[in-house]
Structure formats: C-alpha cells, structure tokens
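Message: Study each token:
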Amino acid sequence: MVDLTISIPQIIGIVIGISVFLFALFIVIVNDERNNAESKNPHGANEWLFTKWDEKIYDAMTHEQPEVFLTKLGVDTEQYIKNCEVCRYRSPNLKKTAGRKITGLFIVALGVPFLMVGNIVGYALSVTFIIAGMMMYGAGISKVDKEAKQKKKQLIDEMPRFLDLLQTALYINMPVEDAITVTCKHLYGTIISDELLSSMAESQIGGVSWQKALENVARKYEVDAFSDFVLYLVTGYEKGLSIYDVVRRQAIEAQKTALINAEGAASKLNTSILIPITIFKLIPLLIIAALPVLLQMIGTGNLF
C-alpha cells in the first residue's frame, strides 16, 4: 500500500510555494488591470493568459447563461443589478461574477483533502482554504448588497430634513420643481440631494417632467417612505391639491417614523449593552456563591 502520509516540513514547503506563486500572480494581475484601465483600448492593451481569467473559467466549466447559473446558486441577479445602479457602479459582468463563484467553490474543495493529513497543520490549511474559498465565493455581491442597504437607510434618515425644508420652500409659493432644486442645494452632499439633482438635470436635458424624474429615483431605490412621498406628491399635483399640505403631511409622517426608528434603535442598543453587563456581573456572583462549596469539596477530597 502506498504511504500517503505527508510530513510537516513537506506541507510547509508546499504552502510556501503556493503562497509565493499566488502572491506573484496577484501582483501581475493588479499591474495588468491598472495598465488596461489606463489604456485607451477598451479590450486592454496587454492581453495575456490571465486576462479575464474568471470569464475564461466560466466558459471552460459551462456554456449556460450566467443569469441562469447564478440563479441556481441562489443569487437574485435582478436585485444585484439594481443594487449596482444604487451604488452607481457600472453594469455588472455576470459572467465574471459566476466565474469567481466557481473559483471559490474550487478553492473550498481543495481544502477538504488536507483534513486527511490528521494533524493540526492539515486542519489549519483546510480551514484556510475553506475561508479563502468562501470569501472568493461571496466577493462582490455581498459588498454591493451591503453598500446598497446603507445608502437606502441613509436616504430614509435624510427624508425628515428634506421634507421640512421642502415645505418651507413651498410655503412661499415657490414652484414645485424650483422648490425641490433649492432644497437639494441646501442639502448638498446627501444621498437624496445627489440623486434628485442628478435626476432633475437629466429630466431637463431629456425633456422629461419633474414627476417622471422623481418616479425614476423612487424606482431606483425602492424605499417605501420615498416611494409614498413621490406617489402622494405626483397624485396631489395632478388632482390640483395644495402641494404644501401634501408635503406637510408627509413631513409629519416622516418625523413620526424617524422617532419610532430611533426608539427601536435605542431599545436594541440598551439590550446589547445590558447582556454583556449582566453576564459579567453574574459570573463573579456565581463564582463567589460556589466558592465555599468548592473549598469544602476540596477539603473532604470529594472534588475528583
């Protein structure tokens, strides 16, 4: 029978060799991508073996459409594309994403044989490969999803201030479009300001109404609070209602919602603070209470 046992020096040598190769490959890939980004050639100035390596891996593994393949892996491609739009990233390359997921699964599979080594070095290598594979598998999509959620939350947090300033502008009978523009300029640098100013500018260039510009932002972010505001504002304008009254009611609702959310966050914070405090108080008390019993058991020799 062939002895498949691997000594620790051999394992260390293999790991060092793989690490040096991967590090050198990483440096070359980063340098090549930087050169291609600076090149005017959209396909890259330096085509080489590892150019678009993730797409090549995907093409080698399957000819299925990336959307279908990612859906089988549980990825909501439609939501992923929307999240990229929210984060203002260019349209995602789904084949590249799928290729990196395949690579991640392959790296995880490489870590399994190291469990057969039967020592702590093998287990450490196995865990390292598995963690690296999982990071490769979730890279990109999880980052975009997290960033999109943060931007949506920030948009919700900015709503009360925006509506408060907007109703002030409408109170002096300023036209709706001008009132929105002036309000956004006062909130320069915020998510809601950047999105609305950009959408309003596009509407002026394309000859689209301000109503359509607001609806585009609402469709992009899919935030209930902002979507309701746009719906009530556009409907009220079309029906000839007082826009000031519509915005004032929305401002009151936004302030109530912000207060409820703040109270909920405060209660969660109190709970998260009380749990460790309770644990660290309870453990010393239990030790103090059990100490006499332990001392008695040690004295009588009944502890072990």
About this structure: The chain has twelve helices and no strands.
